[in-house]
């Protein structure tokens, strides 16, 4: 069996998705990212952009994330983009595993995708399922994900999404930030 090679995927920690329901995970994501990079791991950040006339607008009635200020990453994670070992993928769909995202994963020889970010019930969920569908081992960092739901109770939506991901990819794939660091070879967390 081949060696496991994980990459941390930080999904959509953007101004337009950070609100009262999701802001609490931004510092957790930043601490995890710092520790991951310090341990020699690689990180892929994603930024979602809503296109005029998108299905999000037509079917859901959601018209956010057009302005550059909304699209920008939260300052706590944006500063990492200048560091070695980081990449960014811009996307217009739920999953982070776009053609560009998959190309980065293939080029890095990654076998495992460790996912955190916003929103647990949308882009995180889609990314985890997509990783599973592409034969990659997905990991969900439960304490570094949040829902930003405003039409429903965000904590409940987050919990339901975790239940679905555990059911669809395996309960053991739901881990904490501390456990995520243990996935890195020669991790400083050991």
List its traits.
alpha/beta; 190 residues; Rossmann fold; 8 helices; 6-stranded parallel β-sheet; globular
Description:
The chain has 190 residues and is an alpha/beta fold. The chain has a single domain, classed as 3-Layer(aba) Sandwich (Rossmann fold), CATH 3.40.50. Helix content is 38%, strand content 19%. It contains eight helices and six strands. The chain has helices at 25-38, 55-60, 68-71, 75-78, 99-108, 120-133, 154-169, 177-181, and strands at 6-11, 43-48, 86-91, 112-118, 137-146, 174-175. It has a six-stranded parallel β-sheet, sandwiched between helices. α6 (120-133) packs parallel to α7. The protein is globular. It starts with 5 loop residues before the first strand and ends in a 9-residue tail after the last helix. 43% of the residues are buried.
- How many strand segments? 6
Helix content: 25-40%
Q: Which structural class matches the secondary elements?
A: alpha/beta
Q: Which H/E pattern describes the elements? A: EHEHHHEHEHEHEH
Relative strand content? 15-25%
Q: What name goes with the CATH superfamily?
A: Isochorismatase-like
Q: Per the principal axes of the C-alpha atoms, what is the gross shape?
A: globular
Largest sheet: 6 strands, parallel
Backbone CA Rg: 15 Å
Report the CATH topology name: Rossmann fold
Mean pLDDT: 91
CATH classification class: Alpha Beta
Distance between the termini: 23 Å
Cross-sheet strand order for the largest sheet: 3-2-1-4-5-6
